[in-house]
Model the fold of this input.
Amino acid sequence: MTTATQYPTQSVADRLAALMRPDIARLTAPPYIPPGIAVSRRIFFGAEVMKRHITSECWQVQIGFQDAGYELTGHALPYPESNVRLAIENSDRSTATVIIQDRREWDREAQMCYDPMAHFHEAGYLAERPDVFKLTLLKDHHNDREYNRNHAKEIGCHAWLAYYHPVIAHWLAPYTRPEHMIRIYHGIDTDDVPSFGTDRAPRALLSGAISREAYPLRWRLRHEAHLIPEMSVKHHPGYKARGHFSPEYMRELAGYRVSICTTSLYGYALRKIVEGVAAGCRVVTDLPVDDVMPGIDENLIRVRPDIPTLEFREVLRDAIENYDAAAQQYWSERAVEHYEYRGLYARLAGEVEAMRQRYEATV
Done:
């Protein structure tokens, strides 16, 4: 299969060299005392409101782990208990593992919390249970560091499910322990992927939130769009809880030959990369060259985040003119094969169990 044309790129180290490392203390690994009896119960403390988030990946993580055997627990969820102590103690089965959602999603005092009813009570009880292996999700590594550190300490966090490259994650959130970090990729739903079609505009689509600080390349391209007549710009609908826009976004992508997927100041492997490939697009991105996307990496056209706008236009023109429908259908199938959320999070659940079993040897 033909690989994408490559241009001058940056590495993870290059990206981090431009970022200040936060001065925040690393958390000491809490003890873990595996129960001496057979354990079978696993709990995911989640937030039902994610069913209505603007994008569907957060909800997919929860139901993906539910499909992998976790009890999805919380307000309006299959096991509707919002008190962590009661959820664990009111069972005749021993609990092996607990995953608790990013606190900002359920803490009624947090700006990101769209449903105060999602609040969990007595979360600190988890730290009283060294026999229960505890994990939490780490999403925006650069935001709310003290808040997230305090949450991890409060629950006696043994490990993190961390989005994005682990070196970037630990650099931006140095309170974490790299040896206790499991990378999580964004999944997609096969039902959201439109049928592959060749009737595509010979154009590229730029999408996503516009912020000069967080997305400098995306911001510059948006404000210099008049220099790139081959590029369309999609307005971001805003971060709200009024239903998933993911299916609509995938359908729109399927009308273009190229998707522009910038990765932010921090070099994050955003979901747009997977969605673009799955929708049959060639993907132009400033993802660091050593952050390899399993299954689809050869389809990515990487550039430096500081590429001049007129040079970027030439990259787009080449990608549009050399669009190969057969090749893109192949990569679309690979994206669905590797990032379909049920299989993706079933594999991740296996990684969590492996981490639980080897944790003792690392502390």
The longest strand covers residues 95-100. The chain has two domains: 31-187+340-362, 190-339.
